[in-house]
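pasting for the record
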Amino acid sequence: MAFDGLNMDNILVSDVLDSSLAPIFHFERFNKLQSILLDQLLETNENIVVGAPTGSGKTVVHELAILRLLQLRLSPESSMKLSSIKAVMIAPNKALCKQRVLDWSHSFGSDAVGLRVEELTGDSESKHETNKVLARANIIVTTPEKWDSVTRQWRQDVMLLGCVDLLLIDEVHHLGDDRGAALEVAVVRTKTVNDTYAKNNKLMASKRNGLRMVALSATLPNLADIGVWLGCAPTGIHYFDESFRPVPITTHVQVFGSEGKSTFLFEQGLDRQVKGVIEQFSEGKQTLVFCGSKKSTETLAKTLGSSGLYHSSTLQNVPTAIINTIGNPVLRGVVQQGVAFHHAALATQDREIIEQLFSNGVVKVLLCTTTLMLGMNLPAHLVVVKGTNQWKGSSSGYTPLPRSTVLQMIGRAGRPGLDTQGVAVIMTSFEQQHLYEDGCLDADVVESSLLSRLPESLCSEISQAVIVDIDSALEWLKKTFFFARIFKNPAFYGIHEKFTDHGDFEDYLTDTCTTALKDLCKRGLVNATHDSACTVTALPETLIMTKHVIRAQTMTALMGMSATIDLAGALQGLSSVQELHTPIARGEKKILNDLAKKCRFRPKGKVCTLNWSFHQCADSLFL
């Protein structure tokens, strides 16, 4: 396809795709962002990373990359069948995975072009079931944690995992989150598996084009670092600013006093202000309100539903047949007032009903958590961010929302085709006002979170003989996003020495690897020699830890349990592991304290107090 002579602002779909593939897209023209990328996506196999505002049409970028695979297989020169296509899409959460499978099954499924789209996100699938999905699916939609788990024992399944043609990464900026290490190591491992497969299957590899990676991100100041890590050429790193947003947004930062001594009470007090914000800025049009917790969405929905926010004459009647299909009783009660809530704990059917009612304009105000921020196509005229704090557990307490998260939330403001302008209101405190005012609301630099999971990551690679000594550990580390960032911001990673060149950095990294490997050996998780090479080999414990995605600290604790430990001791030990540690919600305190009085094994004293600590979370798990 030659793109010369076409209007690069809004290219017609029919000018690019033949009649058999054009119906994949439910619009007549590609927008400006998509038009700019068409040539590189459809005419090359280059790695690409795209940073663009929410709502700018980034999802189509992934769909065009899949189309490139389709066209290659359908080409008369290809000796590969259409059924040999293998693409993996990594999305940040299960809700987005389900949405993408639903959309792509319609676009690329058997009724369209004949590709099989499947979700791979569960925690309970057997190895056999997982391998069946890997074998039969053409497009696999998964989460970072699941793909990390699936690929950890890749040498057993190299013929299944090594033939991935296309790795699609959505919301790649989540590399900087607590869960980012899983995404980072999974991407590195996918490249390793693909390289190994190509080396051992040269004939098959010659018929393929190697692994292509296409990543999407919010607008970031260090998008180029992600591009370098993914192996993108400079021409494959694309940054699109706010001018590519289909509907411009006006943002208001409203301050509602000081947080004082209790951030919790301040956040709770914002509930009383939301109605006024909606009345002031919504113009009677649809509103999304982002809340900090599932419980907060439900509480505020009930408050707004009973407040007379909308006169009955302005609301559309919800058919009784639809109301009766809603399983959640609170949701069923508020939806007739034009209000609803949406979060991951809702039943799938309830979420789908609410999404449809909001899309149709029946629901006027939707209270939601960040599930709606990530890929769900439900824009509104007004977006309200109710509070700029997030609860990070008893060890960290409340912390400010990252600016990149707030940007994604307010990016849902403005309905293409319905609004000429969207409106966003950030409700915050005096203490945090400066973080979100004009000129400050830029995305944060994304850093690697690999160091927090380095022992587990090393064990995974040792179990597959990717890492066998210090030199191979260093080579593996050089493939990570951590390596791409450590030279740019060494202080973030705790390096305060003045290094003059890359040689000094390599010495530091060698010391880091040596220390980590020796610590794993000391814990009894690997075997290691005591010479300068530090040759390492896997133990049965290494394989168990890798297979079941167990943290090093947890594995050490399990290995330290006595063989004669009683049931109470075993339960207490398991309740203390980090993998199960979740913050105690305030509403759970009384329930847990009452439960402690009735259990066969009871922790000492009260389970919950106002000053929660880690052992008290362990006590709640013990119950």
